[in-house]
Amino acid sequence: MDNLIEASGVVKRYDGHTALDGVDLSIPEGTIYGLLGPNGAGKTTLIRIINQIITPDSGTVLLNGKPLHPDDVMRVGYLPEERGLYKKMKVIDHIVYLGRLKGMTSRDARIEAEKWLRRMNLVEWANKKIEALSKGMAQKVQFIGTVVHRPPLMIFDEPFSGFDPVNAEQLKQEILELNHNGATILFSTHNMSSVEEVCDSISLINHSRVVLQGNVADVRQRHKKHLFKVRVAEPVIAPNPEFFRIDSIEPDIMGGSQIILRLAPGVAMRTVIDFLNPTYTILGFEEIFPTMNEIFIETVTGNE
Ligand SMILES: Nc1ncnc2c1ncn2[C@@H]1O[C@H](COP(=O)(O)OP(=O)(O)OP(=O)(O)O)[C@@H](O)[C@H]1O
């Protein structure tokens, strides 16, 4: 798979503060990439560099293997962190305006805008002014304006912030659909469940540097704590040999139990099964991988 974006050694300094300190990152074409990190880590700075709003002090960013060129902005959709629409403009006119800025004809922009307004349940608002919209509705309009010209690269800075759970879910589905139709997507977020559900790969930036990078499933695998959930048909009287430690036992509605246990280093799950088998009817077991939320906190704070 070719990389759509390749950033190498990107450094950005603001007076006295290094916002990005040698960031390398590759975004394969056709994937969804998450940019994670605590407040002030440097995510927006990197996004602004890729969007050519600011330039790095050193390092390179390639798009399709070539250095960024001013014309590239036409092939990128960018939803900035600070949202802003012209309050007095009508919703549909605003989307058409944003589409035209990215090279669409008025006719095409209007057709696409109408389609999107239907999809996003905003049809009745098409001829209302932006100032009449709620914050979430205005964000949806700005999202539409970002993707209306169907750019091959879409960059969203914290797209889920300010949305209720239903609209956040809708936005997530739209992002998946855009990606399904071929768009490469980069977004920054503090919403870790969306990362698990949507992202192929991530970079976690902390104090201006990439501290964790890779495919989401691999990252979760690398951080595993040898935790397992075992379901048995009977109530359990806590067995606790030295090769595992029980974290919790929960009765289930069928009268059985769910045991969460942590294996000692080097112990195979087979050993636990052999140990429990004579006493309990084992219905199933699975390994529990840490959530991205847990991995984020562990990596950023250095705590397990
Ligand atoms: N124009 C600027 N002038 C001076 N410092 C800046 C400027 N823009 C960003 N910074 C600083 O660079 C650092 C990184 O900021 P950035 O906005 O990239 O962080 P972020 O990871 O997007 O954070 P958040 O999650 O809070 O949005 C911060 O310390 C910020 O104060």
Automatic annotation (TrEMBL):
PROSITE patterns: ABC_TRANSPORTER_1 (PS00211), ABC_TRANSPORTER_2 (PS50893). The keyword ATP-binding applies. Residues 5-232 form the ABC transporter domain. It holds the Pfam family ABC_tran. The keyword DNA damage does not apply. InterPro entries: AAA+_ATPase, ABC_transporter-like_ATP-bd, ABC_transporter-like_CS, ABC_transporter_ATP-binding, DrrA1/2-like_C, P-loop_NTPase. SUPFAM superfamilies: P-loop containing nucleoside triphosphate hydrolases. GO terms for molecular function: ATP binding; ATP hydrolysis activity. Transmembrane segments: none annotated. Keywords: ATP-binding, Nucleotide-binding, Transport. This is ABC transporter ATP-binding protein.
